[in-house]
Design brief:
Layout (H helix, E strand, L loop, with lengths): L6 E2 L5 H4 L4 H5 L2 E4 L2 E4 H4 L9 E5 L5 E2 L9 E5 L14 E5 L14 E4 L19 E7 L13 E6 L15 E4 L15 E4 L12 E7 L2 H12 L6 H5 L1 E7 L7 E6 L4
């Protein structure tokens, strides 16, 4: 039944289900508010242990699904709460709905496909940690909130809608592409890495970035765009051969980061 009380469900991963009976799965622990319960207290569990999980219902307050998973597949029908796939190392999660904050936080492998919107801190770093996303792929069919890819070290984030403010803040490496617009202050404090906005910027780049080049898409960018095209993402031939404006920065760090803006929006 729908609830507004948070449910900590980090046991809902293929790693914990494989080889268990239906009764053993139902006995796995979860935290409901401040109470320690079992999956069977809150969910109807059907089927023996498998590396393929299907979740249905009102899950917007269910947190940490797929946290730390190393393989297998999770399909979620509906919205789901915070920390989806946080620290995951392998496998795939597909969400037919929206997700809360911190989806894919500090993940190092695997793939997350969000059919709806993503909250803030997508693929980002937890407070007090040094590195955010370290590998893997996150694809969002909708939009994403603020601070996506913060302190990102490796991997790829692709958002078909807009991305909020401070995208790629303090980025160390990796790639964040959006087919919409980047919010204010993209790449603030970034050292290396690539940001790409097909839809332009909601505000200008920071003064610590400089325009370094304008022209036809470079070879590495065309290669990455063809990869996205092969995944079924909306990459057109104009995107492959079009003109881009490149900014480099952030000059407050080593300044080797780059922001590409599709030039038809300049």
């Amino acid at each position: 039944e729908p609830t507004t009380i948070p449910i900590e469900a980090d046991t809902v991963t293929p790693d914990r289900f494989v080889g268990r009976t239906e009764a053993e799965i139902a006995a796995l622990p979860v935290v409901y508010g401040r109470r320690k319960l079992t999956l069977g207290d809150l969910f109807t569990v059907e089927g023996e242990g498998s590396d393929r999980l299907i979740l249905k219902g009102e899950l917007s307050h269910v947190k940490r699904v797929g946290q730390g998973m190393t393989g297998g597949h999770i399909t979620i029908h509906g919205d789901v709460g915070m920390h989806l796939g946080a620290r995951m190392r392998g496998g795939e999660i597909v969400v037919h709905g929206d997700v809360g904050a911190w989806a894919g936080a500090m993940m190092s492998g695997g793939r997350i496909h969000i059919r709806g919107d993503a909250g803030p801190m997508l693929g980002a770093v937890y407070t007090g940690e040094r590195l955010g996303m370290r590998g893997g792929v996150i694809v969002v069919d909708g939009s994403a909130g603020a601070r996506a890819g913060e302190r990102m070290r490796r991997g790829m984030i692709v958002v078909q809608g807009d991305v909020g403010d401070f995208a790629g803040a303090r980025m160390i490496a990796g790639s964040l592409f959006t087919f919409g617009r980047l919010g204010a202050r993209p790449g603030a404090g970034m050292k290396r890495g690539t940001l790409l906005a097909m839809g332009g910027l909601t505000a200008g780049v920071l003064p610590t970035f400089r325009t370094s080049w304008t022209g036809e898409s470079p070879v590495f960018l065309r290669t990455m765009l063809r990869r996205l095209q092969a995944w079924g993402l909306p990459v057109s031939d104009d995107h492959l051969v079009g003109r881009y404006r490149r900014y480099t920065g952030d000059a407050t760090t080593i300044g080797k980061g780059e922001i590409f803006i599709y030039d038809q929006h300049q």
